[in-house]
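Shall we go through a protein fold together, starting from nothing but its sequence? Please make up or recall a protein chain and show it to me in full. Go ahead whenever you are ready, and we will take it from there.
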Amino acid sequence: MTLAHHLKSAWYLRQLTRPELKGMFEPSPSDKWVAIDCEMTGLNPKKDHLLSIAAIHINGSNIQSGQGLHLICRPPVMPTKETIVIHGLRPIDVENGLNYEQMLERLLPFIDNRPIVGYCPQLDMGFLNKISKSYMGTALPNPIIDIRDLYNRYSGNRTQGISHQAQQLSSIATQLQLPELAAHDAYNDALMTAMVFLHLR
């Protein structure tokens, strides 16, 4: 843990309102991670809503794909026709989902103090941190790893000059000769993220 991350975690810990989650603020393990992916009604955390989230443990060189989480949430506003064509989640699919508090009760202990691995995870964290602050008084303290950064280093391009299309998760998986799963499904995307991470790290 870097000094900056230690200070950040200490500050978050002082804001924590749920002491049962204090384990999240312990130093991260060196050989354990959690790959996550979210599906939302849009890209703006201020007006859009979380619909589903998947989380899969990575232990050493093993992906625990059969023991992950795939949680469907009931948003305060139902998805529209325009967004259903992207994520495939209809009102009937989410109306009986977990509310955000129920979702976090399951998700946060599963994440624990593991570094979070994602494809463009800053976007997912924008949604998660918004509801986490209401739930436990603070944002998630976990280190964040963006597989796009790993891929840029792997490809020898440290200037972020790779085209947006080439940086799509499915395109990265293809370049690495990894199996491509159906896109815009949170569990499939989390699993592909985990596979890319292990290949690149």
